[in-house]
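Risk mitigation, structural track. In case the binding assays with adenosine monophosphate fail to produce interpretable data, a predicted complex structure has been prepared as a fallback.
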Amino acid sequence: MIIVMLGAPGAGKGTQAGMICEKYGIPHISTGDIFRSNIKNGTELGRKAKAFMDKGQLVPDELTVQLLLDRVAADDCANGYVLDGFPRTIPQAQVLTDALLKNGQKVDKAVNVDVPDENIIRRMSGRRSCPKCGASYHVEFIPPKQEGICDHCGSALVQREDDKPETVKNRLRVYHEQTQPLIEYYEKAGVLATVDGTKNMNDVFADIVKILG
Ligand code: AMP
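Fallback model:
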């Protein structure tokens, strides 16, 4: 089963992708996570990607597309996978469609996690994470026991550069201009399913499971 997650940044598609992967035993492939781990490890790719990510822009296709195609060609993807954050543009979707077609495959479902912009801004600007152990928090929805401090390891929590308000606005603009057209693309392909992403995490997941079967 090949699943594409669609939705604005901060719509919760990463969380849902993780839950789908756990239930169906398939890998979770997040291009954003791949870039972030490259940044953490100080690679050349990470250095190049960071310049775009920090501004809320898309990383250029030269750095993104082949990386993704190589990843989905790995052995652990043989029974399917969930793509989270790819494709982000119509050209990326077309590359994916063509690459899959060569293997007689296709995207089985594109799950669109629908959340209005106002909710997105509130969700993203409150996100905090621990730079040491990676734990995630939200100042409003999942606050740490002590403000600004990680419950698990006691480190000072940080806000991702790309979760800062100006960058969030830019990411939403980029989403509407470049990524939202994918909803129609996958609708035309007959594989689109939209879920209400404003519900709580478990209810959204239950709706997704109904769709995936
Ligand atoms: P995400 O964690 O999916 O929100 O991605 C974080 C950032 O990584 C995005 O704002 C982009 O700068 C970059 N990125 C992730 N996936 C892609 C992609 N498919 N194409 C271009 N840039 C991407």
